[in-house]
Amino acid sequence: MLVGVWSEVSFPLTLAPRAETWDSGGWHPVSAASVHWTEVTAAELDRRDRLANVPERAHDWLESTRHLADIRNHLLRQRTDPARHPRNRYFEVVVSGLPAGRLFGFVADAVVGGGPVRATSDPAHLWLTAPEFAPGDVVATRTFDDDTEQRDDQWWVLMHRQDADFDHLRIDLLMTHNLTRRPPPASNLTPIAVRLDGLHLDVTAPPRLGTNADSAQLNAFVSVRVDRSTDSIVISRRRGGAPLTEVMITTRADGAEADRSVVDVILAPRDAQPVAVMIIAYAIQGLNDLFVEPVASYRPPRNFAQIAFSDEQALFSGRPETVETTVGDGYRYVLTAQLGYGVRCVWAFNSGALLLLKHSLPATAFAELTAAVGTGLVSVANAGIGAHRNCCYVAETNVQEIARADELIKRILSHD
Q1: 268 DSSP 8-state letter
Q2: What is the full per-residue pLDDT of the chain (416 aa) written as tens digits?
Q3: Does the residue 271 lie in any domain?
Q4: Is 148 part of any domain?
Q5: Domain boundary at 107, 127, 147, which?
Q6: Are 158 and 138 in contact (CB under 8 A)?
Q7: DSSP E strands: which ranges in 301-416?
Q8: Which of 127, 155, 171 marks a domain boundary?
């Protein structure tokens, strides 16, 4: 869990988290020995990031950073330009040894200098469940349709899973960031609403329990977890008597009615079949990208190839009409994720992209790419010299383009 604290002056702070679990016998405090916290600083991010450069620790790096996307860029920018950023501080809290299936309650005090001055967070609650979804749990999808124009925040896949005590839903999105920019949104979460039978849930303002909630209210509580690292929403509801039968999903719920998408799903078993999936990354920049102005916010400034390889502060968007999110990206993230989870992919390169990377990146950074190719993690595909021009060329020109690009790939990546 992450706890944010703001103060006008940078006082020494101590976090005092408190946790408890609930079952039919009432609330039970969690031992303080099971609760551990650490402040997440730019220096701590640097320490964790060093794990990404050790192949056998890449998975550890992914797991240790995947829930920090929302605060990473704030901390990095606060270090480079502290005058422009508020004095937000963040603490990571880990609670171990919790009993599965119970309701979990959490609150934290931020204590200034060990004295009487303190601030207390709002209480948070969730069911202690960790459902593992499978392909057979997919019950509905809303993906690209050639006949309709859909924004990225309107695509989703819905999964439903039951166990002895709970109904679990997972909604996978293309992104969980709010794409609205004007007027500024009230929440950075995508405005999506979910209705479970007759219960309405606003994901940007998940349900909260009152301090005097009775057993009926506790049993009826629905927990909502948003995972930025997977762009998914997991909803858990305790099963009372009647099973969950209907789910309604509304995307762009805060917009005009004409912009909304409302899909009503009747939950029923589906005959899902496995399909083969190929993950294809592509790098087809042209030499004209040499003239893109360097991004001066980095020190030293980064040119196009350098920032395409690693943009950890999410400062650059290749599409002028698209505002960059707060999630870092770049080719390095693809390599690290593929390595960490052991998933192979195909990567299409054209000559322009390869030349830019080869001549712009430090040798150690380019070595990450060649190492991935050498181990078979990345299979290289030939995108030609210019790419996107094959339909305009005569046959002989296409043959020459493919042959010359193939020669360049072998020479630069030592790949056959």
Answers
A1: -
A2: 888 888 777 778 889 999 999 988 889 999 999 999 999 888 888 887 777 666 666 667 667 676 777 787 778 777 766 666 667 889 999 999 999 999 999 999 988 876 777 888 889 999 999 999 988 888 888 876 655 556 777 889 999 998 889 999 999 998 887 776 656 666 778 888 899 998 899 888 888 888 788 888 898 899 999 887 788 999 999 987 678 889 999 887 776 665 677 888 888 766 667 777 777 776 666 556 667 788 887 888 998 889 888 887 777 776 655 556 666 778 887 788 777 778 888 888 888 788 888 988 989 889 888 988 988 888 888 887 765 566 677 888 888 888 888 898 888 887 65
A3: no
A4: yes
A5: 127
A6: yes
A7: 345-349, 378-382
A8: 127
Whether residues 325 and 351 share a domain: the answer is yes
- Are 213 and 319 in a shared domain? no
273 belongs to a structural domain: no
Is residue 29 domain-shared with residue 65, that is, in the same domain? Answer: yes
**Rounded Cα–Cα distance for residues 316 and 312 (Å):** 10
Quickly tell me which residue has 């299409």 as its tokens.
348
Both tokens of 215, joined, read 């057993």
pTM beyond cutoff 0.85: no
Both 122 and 143 in one domain: the answer is no
Same domain, residue pair 215 and 150: yes
* Total number of domains constituting the chain: 3
With CA atoms as reference, report the closest residue to 352 among 296, 294, 304: 304
Sheet of 280-283: strand order equals: 280-283, 345-349, 378-382
- Are 292 and 259 members of one domain? no
Whether 363 is in a domain gets the answer: yes
CB 327 within 8 A of CB 360: no
52, 146, 306, 311, 312 from 315: Cα distances, Å: 21, 32, 12, 7, 8
Calpha distance 171→141 (Å, rounded): 9
Helix runs in 134-271, H state only = 215-219
The domain of 289 spans: 280-413
Residue pair 136/115 in contact (Cβ under 8 Å)? The answer is no
